[in-house]
Amino acid sequence: MTGQQPFEPPQQPQPPYQQPYQQSYQTPYQQPYPPGPQPRWAEPMDAAQAAALAAQQSAAPVLVAIGDIVCTSQEVITPSGRAPIGGVVWSFTDLTRTSRDIPTWAVVCTVIFVFACLLGLLFLLVKEERTQGSVQIVVQGPGFLHQTQIPVFSVPQLHDLAARVNYARSLSASAASGR
Question: What is this structure's pTM?
Fold first, then answer.
């Protein structure tokens, strides 16, 4: 074993490559999106943002906004895309429940005033209506589907949403008939 030199590691190793964050990748194909900040596709829109987007992208005025769904005289605009208003079908599902209960303040007043006089029991006759839940609105057409769920806290709000969907249905029917 004479003739072999002892192994000595190099003083400063030089990597044959750069760190991944330092490399610039050359792609032979076209990128699908332009460079720069990308749109956020999955973020929900409220009615004001949807109406502003519709007004910005369409020359027709906004006739009705239902959650993140906006209707003009020619098209339905949603975060899922656009569709001609004459070719869509609307669905409205009421998922609310309304209950009548004795409010907490009436029970407390009954306990306090029942010892003063028996008229404190009259507080138990007080009832309070409480509406909880949501409505589901679906608009669909050929190659198009969008669903939104809107929380509801009162009966008038429920009736308002139902009236908006019925107005959108009438817009779809008049556009489909060619008027």
Answer: 0.62
65's torsion region: left (phi>0), alpha (psi -120 to 50) or beta?
beta
Measured over the CA atoms of residue 149, residue 139, residue 42 and residue 61, the dihedral's sign is negative
Rounded Cα–Cα distance for residues 54 and 74 (Å): 12
Write the burial class of residue 11 (CB in 10 Å: 0-12 exposed, 13-18 middle, 19+ buried).
Answer: exposed
Question: Does residue 98 contact residue 130 with C-beta atoms inside 8 Å?
Answer: yes
User: 95 with 122: CB under 8 angstroms?
Assistant: no
pLDDT tens-digit readout, 33-73: 455 554 454 456 666 666 666 556 556 788 899 988 999 88
3-state secondary structure 97-150: EEEEECCHHHHHHHHHHCCCCHHHHHHHHCCEEEEEEEEEEEEEECCEEEEEEE
Which residue has tokens 């007080």?
Answer: 126
When the pLDDT of each residue in the chain is averaged and rounded to a whole number, the result is: 78
**Can you say whether residue 31 is alpha, beta or left, with left for phi > 0 and alpha for psi between -120 and 50 degrees?**
beta
